[in-house]
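Appendix C reproduces, verbatim, an entry submitted by the partner laboratory led by Prof. M.T., so that reviewers can inspect both the input and the predicted structure.
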Amino acid sequence: MTGKYDVLIIGGGLVGASLLCALESAINQYELKVALVETHSIDEARDTPPSYDARASALSYGTQLIYEELGLWSALDQFATPILDIQVSDQGHFGATNLNYQDEGVPALGYVVENHRLGEVLLKKLKDFRDQGLVEVLSPAQVESLQPMPGSEMKVLIGQSGESVEKLASLVVLADGGRSSLMEKLCIGRKHYDYEQHALIANVSLDRPHQGVAYERFSGRGPMALLPLSDDRSALVWTVPSDEINDKIAMDDETFLTTLQEKFGYRAGEFTRVGTRETYPLALSVAREQVRPGLVVLGNAAHAMHPVAGQGYNLAIRDTLALADNIINSIRQGMSPGHLTRLLQYVDEQKTDQKMTLDFCDGLVKLFSRQELPVILARNLGLTCLDMSRGLKGRFARKAMGL
């Protein structure tokens, strides 16, 4: 054995790097030994997307508070576009509701940040931790196998520079994405539901400023979201049936904008420009096990959901902070961070949030996809009642904000 860690994180993406930041206090206070394994070199220059086409994520107000707590928001704030209003509507029907930041007493309902900006801030922190000797970063490197050992430890075989080394870890955190090959090797199954839909994502421009308004527009066969971006761009997320996606991609820009306008309507203005269009298939995918002795599954590896309401990454960050708190409390109590009893407590604390968020997003998609008249009437009455009830709207807004 060439080393033993308290925590070994597999995956240096947004979730893995965020967990590292959340463990900074324990690394300093308790000399927590932490390592991170990343398949790509963290020192190689990364491609910067064209400014117009840069992809973005919606961070809830709750996620902003977490990043502020971790000392990251000051670096992100300059790149963040605040969401001041959210307008929810059902195309062709009377139901609608509007959420406003002033009504909720917050500076913004959420923020939209380009992914590469978020990645740059987290990557800089990762490099700082490594350069200060606080964390060992193995990059580029690949975890070849995980083997449970007595006492809730894991033996980790890591390939780097053509050689393989063995490490011991009290806790291994799998944060290597929704297609984790290590989960397959560990025989951790997934519950999977295919929506038979694709997300079409692109940045668009309109003929008037967005003024910080985000739109969630339900349109029969799939919801459409429009998020405010810097430079008065907006980020489009259009859910399209899988059998129609190739046609949408093949359209020239003028035809695409005309089709988009017909579906979305004119409430945001007139669409004048569209950037590069990209797509990915949509499914609900949940790990059947999130913890084992010495092991936690985190982020998209634990759960991936429909992008409606933009809750996926925000749920992952709430999980990440809860896991960091669990690890720190284990150390304070003199227990191994990989002790199953402690990890089961983490799952128990998060299960309500996870189930509510997953069910909420899945239910929205299925409810607004149905076209039976009684269902249409019921959901539009529901939207109208929500808009008229300050108490209900407040609870709905707090859930959307991750509070």
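The domain at 4-50+118-191+284-362 is CATH 3.50.50.60 (FAD/NAD(P)-binding domain). Additional entries are available on request from the coordinating office.
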